[in-house]
Fold each of these.
Amino acid sequence: MEKIIFILINIVIVLFFPLFFLGIINKTKAVIGGRKGASVFQPFYDFMKLMRKGEVISNTTSFIFSLAPIMILSSLLFAYIFIPISGNSIMNFEGDFVLFAYLLGFSKFFMVISALDTGSSFEGMGASREVTFTSILEPGFFIIMGSVAFISGLKSFNDIHNLLLVPGHLILLIITLVVIALFIMMIVEGCRVPADDPNTHLELTMIHEVMVLDNSGPDFGFILYSSGLKMFLISSIIALFITPFGYNLYVGYLMYIAIVIASAIVIGIIESIMARVRMSHVLEFVLIMVSISFLILSSVVVQFVKGA
Amino acid sequence: MFNFFNLGILFLILGAFISLFTPKSKKLPIFAIFSVLGNISFAIVSLKVLLFSGETTFNVYLSYPIGKVTFVVDYLSAFFMLIISFVTSLGVIYGAGYLKKYLSTHSVTSHLIFINILILSMIMVTSVQNSLFFLIVWELMSVSSFFLVIFENDKEEVLKAGINYLITMHIGFVFLLIGFTTLIIQTNSLNFEDFKVYLSNNNNSLIFLILFIGFSFKAGLIPFHSWLPKAHPVAPSHISGIMSAVMIKTGIYGILRIITLTENISIYIGVSILIVALITAFLGVIYSMLQSDYKKLLAYSSIENIGIITIGIAIGIIGRYYSNELVSTLGFLGAIFHIFNHSIFKSLMFFASGNIYQQTHTKNIEKLGGLMKKMPHTGIVYLIGSLSICGLPLFSGFVSKFLIYFGLLNNIQAPFIKISVISIITFALLGFVGAIAIIGFTKLFSIIFSGAPRTNIEDVKESDKIMLIPLYILAGLSVLTGIFPQYVYILLHKTVFPFFNNITFMSEDILFILTKLSNSMLIFVGIIGFVSLIRHRLLKNKKITKESTWGCGYNAPNTRMQYTGYAYVSSFAYLVKPISGFFTSKKSPKGLFPKESNFKFGHYDIFDKYLNPFLGFISYLFSFFGFVQKGKIQTYILYGLIFLIMLLTWTIIKG
């Protein structure tokens, strides 16, 4: 019975939060810009509007174009079941974060082939940029998880809280670095400022938005939801690293939700005070994440040598 | 003496003979039937070993100096026999469809006979225990595959690539000869069993490395890979499928065999193999991503996958060194599993490429596009193959990569911190390789099958059934392995037994994780079903309009405005310029009446570039000995005579 309630809560969270996440970012931006701004529930209205519409499909496309949104959404929903919220995930096994990373790859694969399926030059351009930038993130993510595994014996997302039990002051530094690195990963994967601007109006400067130019109706709704979900998933991992466990289940939920909302607000603040970097400098921004991951690796080695 | 092993040999020899005398119209099906029957017999032998009985021994008596030849089908041999017989039988069926078009123009019969010789020699390479006979069948395998590669021998590029292949194989053969001769002299025996005693009790590093290099030539490990991207594209597709899927794996078999024979391999060798494997995987995937020739792309991707397999092997060796059995088992098992998966999806990709080539007559992806509407079946299996190669969840490639990752993850808390750091770096690089593979294969699939056609494809149509059924079998197997890996594991897990002396094997642990993986995959399938149901409900009774692609307001887009494959990968290729050999050259128009102007971009294999001057030096050196080769038979007979006289004198002097 408890298990069922647990799963139900998880499902509610995953249905509600991705769009809410986008809503909070927009609201933060509006408030800082001195506007009243749309309600935080505006993405829900947009989403429902899209769900009621029909579709316009390019006649160049094949079945891939209609298949891709389904695959993108399902792979990210599936990735969610490995994220432990308040201590436990719906499902876990040793090495599940490898599966998580590959599921992000799975969604990217379909995103890209759907973009190339339209035969548009703009969408090819976006696809090329997206795979280039996000492929650099992959080794960074694995170095982070590997380093954490080295120091705390982590085998799955569920073991992350063991990190807090590792003695030594250096561990605080390591956690801080991990959070910064994952935050950059969230910005790049979620295509936010400064890596990409979702509100840009020129196709030539887009990365993610240009790949979905031809999607409409429910398909576009799925993609909109998926991009919120992707950021939500990575912010959940960030929350895992900084939530102290061992609390009551429901207190755990509250802290987790607070951290996720806080990361959405931080994204909003960053978008308000920063401009996006030039396309040729996006790569440098992405490489910061990889450099930080190497810093984490070295601090882990230092921690080990000092401890021994 | 009846057994299925001999029956298989008999079927193959019979098939080769009968194809000599059958009329052209019935040649291919009759040959295919005999070949498949032979392969089924071998499959029965290997399945019996893997599932029930354990080792089986067959003896064949030959004349001096070989004497009794023992074929021992242990778990390792049985596994390789299984994939060889499975892939080659599908390859032969596919080939029967593929070769139809060549019946009137080429000599198909000799080609068919060489196919059977290749199958037979591969089966024997993986099961024979006698080193001299091993070298003979190894040579037979290289020569027969050489003749298969140069099937279209009226083209210059084909012959060139074929001869390159033949020579490279013989350089590798020299290493094997040195290694095995040393062992034969030291042990005074031809049998692998005696080698094992010698290798386990002596300093073995040098012999191990020599044999490893010899086998690397066949496997295609960088820097011994240069034959592979040349030979695969020119061979007919069923042959490139068989070669890439199973023949280069005999090189891996050789490496695995010497690992079973050598018990105490030093950790330094393990780490050096790991580094070579990482370089292979990394450079392999980068070069593969850059290719515009789809068969060349697949060939480089084979190099990448051989690198991944070797990473697994290296983890196995390292884990075995400090007797961490879980790590070691996961490493070897990951390698074995990846060999299995790779043999399935790579043959699938090569066969499907054959369909594309026969219909479009081009290997350049920049000239294709929009084939999905013309060849939907080939397109679907191509998609499944691409997803498997990228190692994405739900498909077979993920399972084996996951096992290797999992081995590395367990290796991270190794007793030595150096090994831990190396494991973390390997972990990351393996992830990077996976990400780059996604770039390469999204390009391959999308540029060929999606978008609008870049050249006229009016007369392109779907291939024959006989060329599609093997593909669907392979694709189905890829998906099933991805969803139910635990059953494949039950079939394969005994293959790792020969690597350990005494097994306290935790098969339960690995089985448990694979079962969990399988359960989660079923959930994934459920989610996909649920989401597509929702989409279906939402779009019911809704208007779906067909329009042209959004052209940013431009009304007359043409197909040449699409993104090309090269443009798609160039932003990544530019990042890795120093190692990818990526270059651009530009000649801008000048003056009032500009004439010539061009823009060129491409890439080269850096090993080819830096090895070529060295090879040129060697051939310059050897040109001084050119006078020995006169091209007259009399001269050669004279050489023989001189040699005999010298031998005679030497014997007399020595008394």
Amino acid sequence: MENEKIREIFDKIALPVNNDFLIELKWRQANRVWLKKSQAIAIKILGTLKTQGKSQKDLAEKMGVSSQMINKILKGSQNLTLETISKIEIALNIQLIETSETLKEKLGQYEEMVHGLSETLKSIVNVFVQNQGVIEKQIKNYQTNNASDEMKTKTSLNKLSNLIETEPEYAMAV
Amino acid sequence: MKNGTKFAIKKLRNGLYVLELTKNKHELQRFLSFLSNIKFLTEFFEKNIYDLQSEFYNNINKNVPITIEEAVQITTELGDNVTDFYIYLLSLPQDKFEIKINEFFKPLSKEQTIKTLHLHVNQMKKSYGIVGFNKYNWIRIYALKIENTFIITGGAIKLTKEMNQGTQTKIELEKLYKISTQLKKEFITEDVSFEDGLIEF
């Protein structure tokens, strides 16, 4: 059976070509940039719901929207408004988009953290400086004690090895 | 899909048709919607976490097992590739389309060989430090080839070695068999060459 005949059969039984599918594909391609963002938001929401042990119904109630709306958001194909994004952020206590304000806030938090760390470091250094004399004395004492202990051990070992050489039976008993 | 299920065939272009089981949404449309639906993808990977984190994909790259979030993100990227591929395929002039579609169609029995080849290429890419999403190319678009006419029957995320081991691929395999049987019985009674396979993008 020739290929043309096969196509004739299919053309008879098939619904005719319409460009809807190609239009749909081209729409997906043209809107890819914001669709990617919507998908990233959906992934983050689903992950957060799992971590926080919340259901989609909980989120809908907290946001004051319908379950159908949450379903649409979680598909990742919803062109979300800033209002909706903010509602999600509040309901889940997460950050979905960064603005100069939120970045400033974060920067402020980091600066505070760095300031706190440098203050702690300063106070540690101060303790050392103020007690330098005492610390040096303690280190010296430690070194002297250590040296004297080492000497004592060496002397004992020498004595023992002499004893083994001169009086092995007595040494065994010791 | 039950035996004797009513189905429609939609013409995408001369020589390329697609199966329609749900009204106003053919199987390629349905699969592409699935590939961009974060909620459905998350549920799918949660359900098939064992296959996702099994040796089949993870021994390509001996890193920590892939997470569901990563798998969802990779799949949406692959879905974009499928979209671009079909825009390309539907926009080709007829003569070029006839050549290209034959290049992209791979008989199912050879899939294992193709897979091995993929692995080999990816290992090479890896040794040169070029590792992209390709190593996780788990998307398949299945089609029947009758002489030189193609009927897309659907698509699946293939996480297992054999088609009858995966949840989606098993359904697609049955669909290929049932549709070809029904077509042979009702429409194409003469002896023609029927081949089932996948259109690689």
Amino acid sequence: MRQFKINEDWLAVLLGFALMALAILGLPIKF
Amino acid sequence: MQKTESSRAGVVAGLALVFALAGLAWFITQQVYALKLPFGIPGKSLEYPLWAALVGLAGNLVLKPFKAHEYVRPGLRTELFLKTGLVLLGAGLSLGDLIKNGAGAIVQALIMITAVFFFCWWLAGKFGLDEKLRAVMSTAIAVCGVSAAIAAAGSVLAKKEQVTYVTTLVIVTALPLMVLMPMLAGAMGLSQSVAGAWFGGNIDTTAAVVGAGTIYGEAAQKIASIVKTTQNALIGVVAFLLAVYYAVVVERRSGERPNPRLMWERFPKFVLGFIAASIIFSLGWIGKDAAVTIGALKNWAFTLAFVSMGLELSVSEVQRMGWRPVIVFLITTLFNTLLALGVAWLLFERLTLGG
């Protein structure tokens, strides 16, 4: 059983903030 | 060398599969959101994680006979999608809402979250539920909703079957509550503000809270939304406390002395990103349009996560969890319903903190 690992945490933070920055710059994404 | 190449191809194939299925889940979600279901239930209350998990599960069942699972597994980055989504979720939770929403909503949220969380925690212990399932379920019912369940799952490093199980329960239980609660409120002759506070404090998903409020009246809908957003704003606090508790107490091996370095190693770092994002949003550094886009990106990240969870879901693991979690969930929901009614009546009728 694979569990959520912590080694991806910083990558997720980086990705999250990069996406936030793109959103602020006007990335046209809708859901 | 060959192994690395095949695992790289697996990453690409897995990611392509997850993105394609997420697109399909999105399409289904849009169709369902446009529906008007019986009893005036808006299609929107059947939230997207349900469809994403189902599409993933369908993919899972198709892949299994071809033994293609192992090949695509390196691309199923459930944790990464989930935690990225949580950082983005943080960028939509304003601590300022707590101040803006007023005393009634804050007092109600604090009472409800604390009481319901510990009741569910205690009951889950009595029923012998797994430590992590216990945390995810308690947070999902106490703070209300899918985002809370996901945030708790990340904080305590829960299994994907536990997240999917609780999320499904949250979405499915919200539907009858959304229809029944306005009917009961009408039968009891509750005022708009008490009814709204009751819906907001009890129903687990935001869409169903708004749905119930809309059925009862405009003023009820407004109070319901305020109470709900106040609870949502506290997700970060609960996620942080859970992360600390699991890193310091639960994950500690017997005989091990508390050690800051070990605790730091076990602490889920994405929670820090989540809180930082929430502070940035609370400071007003993210404009309205950007906030809408961030919300959409968050939904996409969670769709990818739930598709991956569906693809990886072990049906036998879900069966092993059995019916006990459902019983704990339903009893806690009943407790939540009664307590929310009492607290809403006390705060919004007797003390009139609503205005």
Amino acid sequence: MMRISMKVGVVLCLLAGAIAVGTIVSRRAFAAPPEKYLHVRVNNSENKETVNVNLPLSLAEKILPTIHQGNLKDGKVTIGDAEMDNVDLRAILDAVRTAPDNEFVTVKSDTEDVRVAKSKGNLVVHVNETKKDGEKNPEKVDVTIPMSVVNALVPTDKREIDLVAAIHALADAGDTLLVTVHNATEEVRIWVDSNGSST
Amino acid sequence: MILLTKLVVGAVGTIVTLGAMVCSEGFVSVRVQEKHPGGTHISIFAPALLLNGGLRCVPSEHLRDAGEQIRPWMPTIEAAMQQMGKMPDLTLVGVTDPSEHVQVSKLGGSIVVDVDDENETVHVSAPLRAMDDAVQQIAAAGPKL
């Protein structure tokens, strides 16, 4: 009788252990990915003003499809033929996506240098204002957009910009510094990470 | 004596239940402190259910314009409220300059707005659920479609 009780006890313990391990494994396997935040920080040294905006991407993803204003509907912006001026945006993006890392556009002028390139899975745009006489810090703009986001923005065969798909791609893309702008008085930084505060 | 005990228990039970119902929606907190000498200090800490009940007492003609304007944005507001309820606590917007500090945050199921400038300090905290109810009431007061 004692031996049977012990066997039942051992079986029950093993079962309990298996259930506990199964629960932990399934929780880890199905754990929700961490929330991603779009951060915007503007520092103005002239008026000593700092603006910080922290927007959870999931919030933007839920809100955008509910806004129906002008060309924005269901989280997509429709681009008319006139606005596109017969430019096939999809074809251009397809060409950029399939092209190897390279510089696509380089413009050097008296007022600014512009560079558009594909580098390490990102579409990169650099604009450097040329230093004028007496100017301390000419404006410098750096934009880095993961190609997955660029692809998501423009769905195949449609004249639409899919903002919701782009936000979704942005959330999947990992921590990314999207935009930096520096000039004599202002510093702007836009980035995505999993940190709820903009520190 | 037994009857008296039953009455007391019944009364206490009713008060506790009513209190729980009133507090169930959370509390709205408003604090305004003017900084100049002798400045006004206002502090309101009220159950959100009472404020929403108060909104029901406002004649609908006073809310009609607001209701009409807010109605097209109801899906957006509902989506935002629902999603914000799921979000962890965070500061949504912060603006700091030498004379003013403004912060809008989500804190424990409430939206909290803090303003600290040269003249006054303002703190407003309202539960998301109560805000949602209030917005629904205002939208319902708009002209019938």
